[in-house]
Amino acid sequence: MAESCGNPAADADALMPRKSKFDRSDKCVKCKEARGNLVVRHVVYCKDCFSGQLEARFRKTLEPHINHAPSGPRRGTLKPAGDLLIGFSGSAGSSVLLDLVHGTYIAQKAAPEEGKGGKEHPRKDRVWHNVRAAYVEIADAFPDGKMRDRTQDMRDAVAAYDGVDFVPLRIQDAFDPDWWARVTGNHADDALVDLSDEELPILPPSDSSSTPLANLRTFLANLPTPTAVQSAISSIVRVLFLHTAYATSSSHLVLGTSLTSLSISLISTISQGGGFAVPQSALEEWYPNFCRDPVEETEAPNGKTKKKPWRREVRVLRPLREVGMKECSAWARWHDVSVVGKASLPIANAHTATIGGLTKDFIVGLEKDFPSTVSTIAKTTAKLAPKGTSSARCALCELPMQPGVQEWKARISIRSRSDGAAVAADAPEIRSLAPLLCYACHTTLTSRSSRSAAPNKSGAESKNPVVNLPMWTSACAQLESGPAEQWLGTPEESSPSSQEVWETKRMDRQNMRSALGQFLLDP
Ligand SMILES: [Zn+2]
Ligand SMILES: [Zn+2]
């Protein structure tokens, strides 16, 4: 203890540039003895006290959610229903998370002095039977070796922790029917969708078989903006983690999202229309979309909710969501955590050309000068509660979908009466993906920013934006042919009160433009 807390001069200079590091006292607020080594939002900690309180915060965020049924006052036995999966990206946050999980729940031979700072806790049998760390390699999404495959680096980083198995994934697994069959035991046909049409009509599967990698690249290449590419990749990675958790019978998926990255993702998600799923950033219970019977709690008559037994749903948690980037780095430095680093996507001008990049620059800059603002962003955003709840989830990102989006879309979309002769009676019904998507994903797939090329310029229409979908989306699209309405909870049988018959018909761009002309803001 003496050597970690008490050797200030050298350490302090190495940590902070000359500027006044301490506002008031340079003594640690906890032990009031040691000179501080780190200032977190104007609070001074020594190395030991910092480590103790960070571990305590980690456990306080995670442990109330470990048991399937809440065990009332905490501190009972931790008995998770399944295994644990760590979503590992190589970032400082996920590296620190791996270190904390290992140190808290796996390492047995903790020396007595190690528990200092935190409260005593019983170190007995390991909490989860199996702990795995999954990593999704995204290098293949970008051709010509623009991104280095870092699977081996990640494997080495995870191998440093005994008792944690490494699960390597590749982003093209999302388009691989074999992967889908492995994790779900189900078969799904490819579904093709036409991205040039806002309704996203689903086309019959093609005979030409292409590789999952080619399908992935075609999908990304046809997204309208760099922002869309960025958010599609992070959705795909997230859903790959979820399915991996499901396939490995994990009751918990933990992600290394720090306070800083949580704020970045909340702001950029909200600005892309994903606000409905904000509560899921704190706690999410997920089960695959193909499981029709939601494992939701049943509402008991007395108003209490009763949990059903665990049925392999995955609880997604971010135990570091109150720990800032600076604290993660400090932990990594003091606990010899090797941080491989998260690769940035090779998107041209990602910093200025994507919502994610701009938000990141903004928040990181803000954190530097006004460290308290970032936690305010996360805390304020966490209070947002969307109107209503929903059991329907988006076919692409698998997050809850705003109820009524369908009705809303129906209201704002142009439809034609079927009494005209325009539509042949035997024309095949066009199924559409749009109603199965949340607002944010629909925007990701279809809308162009002011920065992207104007849609009707020459060449824009000439490329053929028909793409394959990730397997989970394909699976939903196929379900849609059958009980989609029932699934979405909108009984849409022709109501007897109205004799109108509505039918969806494709309009060409010219007609659509003239019909919409008066509502368009752009000249
Ligand atoms: Zn101290
Ligand atoms: Zn979505």
Give the names of the bound compounds.
zinc ion
Total DSSP E strands: 15
Question: Helical element count?
Answer: 18
- Main sheet? 6 strands, mixed
Proportion in β-strands: 5-15%
Query: Gyration radius, to the nearest Å?
Result: 25 Å
End-to-end separation: 69 Å
Question: Under the CATH scheme, which class of the largest domain?
Answer: Alpha Beta
- Assign the CATH superfamily of the largest domain: HUPs
**For the largest beta sheet, what order do the strands appear in spatially?**
5-4-3-8-12-9
Assembly type of the shown chains?
Answer: single chain
Low-pLDDT parts are: 6-14, 109-123, 293-298, 415-424, 450-462, 481-502
Query: Per CATH, what is the topology of the largest domain?
Result: Rossmann fold
CATH architecture classification name of the largest domain: 3-Layer(aba) Sandwich
Proportion in helices: 25-40%
Mean pLDDT: 77
Judging from the principal axes of the Cα atoms, what is the shape?
globular
What's the number of structural domains? 2
Could you say which structural class the secondary elements and strand pairing correspond to? Answer: alpha/beta
